[in-house]
Design goal:
single chain; alpha+beta; three-stranded antiparallel sheet
Length: 167
């Protein structure tokens, strides 16, 4: 299972404030092997926003998630709670919806999942792609979900990464 996102660490809180991105949307994060967790640990993904309206749109899209929340780091009680959750020994493992290198992630996806992408294209499109043609996916993050965007000529397919991963 590919886990593309960065661990969220306490120093990132001040960094987000400096960047003018005080709004975080939290949600359950499933891209971690449960065998690596203690039974009491909960894994949360945080997405950052500079606009409270965009944070609300994200929140509404995931409102049924038990860990869905909008966190405003400008509110001391919210900031303190995130600091506690990010602290070593916490019952939470936090991930931040950012990747170190989008290009590296796209290369990794292309190498590991090229057969899955070809199978998806064969099953779900009428594209005719030669076997020796390299597929160059791009990666998008939408409301905490990783999507793979595959282009062929002027046509575009956007597929949830987990669909490719699970075949």
């Amino acid at each position: 299972m590919l886990q593309p996102f960065e661990r969220f660490l306490t120093p990132y809180i001040d960094h987000l404030m400096e960047l003018g991105k005080p709004y975080l949307v939290s949600q359950t994060y499933h891209r971690i092997n449960p065998a690596l967790l203690q039974p009491h640990q909960k894994v949360i993904l945080l997405s950052d926003y500079d606009d409270p309206g965009l944070a609300k749109i994200h929140f509404k899209a995931i409102r049924h998630d038990p860990y869905a929340a909008i966190i405003d780091l400008e509110k001391p009680v919210h900031k303190k709670k995130i600091e506690q959750m990010a602290a070593t020994g916490s019952d939470y493992i936090l991930f931040w919806a950012v990747v170190k290198s989008k290009k590296q992630l796209e290369l990794k996806v292309n190498l590991r999942y090229k057969d899955s992408m070809r199978d998806y294209i064969t099953r779900n499109t009428n594209w005719r792609i030669d076997r020796d043609t390299t597929i160059r996916p791009s990666v998008q993050l939408i409301f905490g979900e990783l999507f793979i965007v595959i282009k062929h000529g002027k046509q575009v397919v956007r597929v949830k990464f987990e669909e490719l991963e699970n075949g």
